[in-house]
Design goal:
heterodimer; B: mainly alpha; 11 helices; globular
Amino acid sequence: MSAVNPLGLYLHYARASVRAQAQYPAAFLMLSAAQFLGTGIEIVGVWALFARFGQVLGWRFGDICIFYGVVNFTFALADTITRGFDIFGTEYVRTGAFDRLLLRPLPTAFQLLGHEVRLSRLGRFVEALLVFVIGASLLHWTFGPAAIPLLVWAVMGGAALFSGIMILSATLAFWTVESLEIVNVISYGGVEAAQYPLNIYAAWLREFLIFVIPIACVAYFPVVAALGRPDPLGAPFWLMAASPAVGFLFLGVCLWIFGFGVRRYTSTGS
Amino acid sequence: MAAVAPYLAAFSARFQLVLQYRAAAIAGFATQLWWGALKIMVLAAFFYGATRSPPMSLTNAITYTWLGQAFLIFLPWNADPEVAEMVRSGAVAYDRLRPLDTYGWWYARAVAWSAARVVPRAVLLFAVAAVLLPALGLGQWSLRPPAGLAATGLFLIAMIGVALLSASIVLLVNVIAVASMTDRGANLMIAPFSNLFSGGIVPLAFFPDWLRPGLRLQPFAGLVDIPYRIYFGELAGWGALQGLAVQLGWTLLLVLAGHAALGAAMRRLQVQGG
């Protein structure tokens, strides 16, 4: 590790991945359009509910657009960089290709991070930004001085958290060999849950989203703080502002578990 | 009867094969349970503070949501992956050599493919949402039984209609896969559309009143909105028969269109491989 600059090496990986995808511009455009549509159709459903009911526990459509935009932007960011963990079971463990990564003098998690930068997630980014802008204009949001730093901090913590979930799912592959789709319940299901404010959920789900898979700490709390509203659940401002740090803590725990899996790894190859 | 035998064989072979994937069925069931719970909590929150009277009771909306999760696989999510692979590898030539109508052959496979994945998931979901939840004292969140004997019978007919309509849409996606040599583009478009326009994301009843008449006449409504409203008795008598007619009409139309389009695509198909 001493001889190489990790950031420089990562940029090298990223450049190679981007150049490879640039060879297939039609595929890139098609997948991006599909990401845009697939995520976008969801907000049409939310809009229909608000057109019918007007509000939900005092939250308006504009508020939901902000929650929705932030969590989808965050997830798109994590999804862009963690492709290597996503296909870890099928392409590294099942084939035995993971042995090659173990031979290189670099942490394996770092090498998997360099597997691919998924450009097709651009569609989800664009969609998330668009919905965020719509929400901000519906709310006539003036963005107080803390709003932008809080949102950036939330996205960073959230990207760490969702990357952690992807790493956990990859870790399972050490035992199951295949990648398990059940983890989608936590990743996609978590995004789905975080599109709405936390106080509309039953207590057991709220506690799950704060303490077990702490998505609320990187989505709900910092967004409420950025909006400058009092939390209906009663969390003080400083706690809401600090909560995205939990995302990095979660990532640390996931990396530690991944390391445990690596030590237990026995090759399937010959 | 002899003319139908090969298509029935295609159906039962695929049905039995797909039924073997138990881990996939359990994973799908767990996902749908979680998704159902989320959707119900969101709907309940909207109902809780509603100032205007909603177009559907919360009880029915909960039943609708659970039914949607139980029969989720009946939505046309993508082209038949094996057909797409055959087109890519050139193995589609074997299917062209069979003394059978390729459309009918693929149609039977498509019906079996969705039905075999639906059955275990639906059984598990009914067991939890209709039996376990009331037993745990969570009856208000449960999947209620159908509105009556007539509703049960009509619902079963409507679900057969769903399988047939869904397969006719899958076959159209197959045709696009044949014509474009890849299933990627069409797959990515069909899932969001069928999910939204069927009423899978939000019941069509919740859409604004000026949109509803149009939404209820388009083909996707026959996949979710029509059968579920028959289930809890909102569509009964003539209304139910009209709903079934919309479903059947679209199925026939899409089968005829798909049959013609597949014929045209096959005439231009160049088989890959050597």
